[in-house]
UniProtKB/TrEMBL annotation:
Residues 81-173 form the Methyltransferase type domain. This is Methyltransferase domain-containing protein. Keywords: Methyltransferase, Transferase. It comes from Streptomyces anatolicus. One of its GO terms (biological process) is methylation.
Length: 274
């Protein structure tokens, strides 16, 4: 039987490059990428993420043990915004602690997976740079690898998060550890040698034949992140660099036990709105 799609009909692989990408292009590209790849992402990582776990990154650091948002018993009756929620796994865990989470994501398809899994969490499709909430709507905000690695203007997002938080509110977000940008995104030995400048902030872009971006990721150094957080109106109280645990034997893209035991893969920023 002939395949439904002939090999010649498949779209060409996007070209990987480093070039400038502004706020609009980054948002449009990443919305499309996550809509196209949400199914594969949830199939590949859904078991690790669970339906109602709060995992901060590929290392497997769980909020149950980390308590970066605060002790679980203090989450009860808190209004919490999850940004870049994907299938809302973290929000479901927050709801199980008695919190009132709202799961926001740029991708419609990711939120369809949240609907598929189900649960009591309200879902909102929106850009993190233009949050559709009133000032002071939330006690806490969180983002596990959501939004911040993909936006061209992180200060804009941070200011928006600060706006919707109440005084004393905490925002905790995780992203790829900046040092990883100096190394190839490979889980094996080839990913252990420096191949690029840590100080090169040029975005990583995948683009189609016409040069239109179909995926964009932005690099910020540790110093950049600290300055962004301060410029966004927050006080930085901690940076957590999870170590690779012995129980975690899986590879996730460029994350692996080999690399995780030698260099950090995730940075988690704990911020307070005074």
């Amino acid at each position: 039987m002939e395949p439904i799609i002939q090999e010649s009909e498949l779209p060409p692989e996007p070209e990987a490059t480093r070039r400038a990408a502004n706020v609009t292009e980054s948002s449009r590209a990443n919305r499309g990428w996550w809509d196209r790849n949400a199914d594969e992402y949830q199939v590949e990582h859904g078991t690790f993420l669970g339906d109602d776990r709060f995992v901060w990154g590929p290392e497997g650091l769980d909020e149950v043990e980390a308590e970066l948002l605060g002790p679980p018993e203090e989450l009860k009756d808190k209004d919490i915004l999850e940004i870049g929620a994907g299938a809302a796994q973290c929000s479901r865990w927050l709801a199980s602690q008695g919190a009132r989470p709202v799961a926001l994501d740029l991708s419609h398809r990711q939120l369809q997976h949240a609907l598929r899994i189900g649960g009591p969490v309200p879902l909102v499709q929106a850009d993190a740079g233009v949050l559709p909430f009133k000032d002071g709507s939330f006690d806490l905000a969180c983002s596990a690898y959501g939004a911040l690695p993909f936006v061209a203007d992180p200060v804009l997002v941070l200011k928006e998060v600060r706006r919707v938080l109440r005084p004393g509110g905490r925002f905790v977000f995780s992203a790829t550890h900046p040092i990883r940008w100096a190394f190839p995104d490979e889980p094996g030995p080839e990913g252990l040698s420096v191949a690029a400048s840590y100080f090169d902030r040029t975005p990583y872009v995948e683009q189609d034949e016409e040069g239109n971006a179909v995926y964009v990721e932005h690099h910020r150094t540790i110093g950049d992140r600290v300055r962004d957080i301060v410029a966004g109106g927050f006080r930085l109280v901690d940076i957590v660099e999870p170590e690779w645990p012995a129980w975690n034997t899986q590879e996730w893209g460029g994350w692996s036990p080999l690399r995780g035991n030698l260099i950090p893969g995730t940075a988690i920023y704990v911020c307070v709105r005074d």
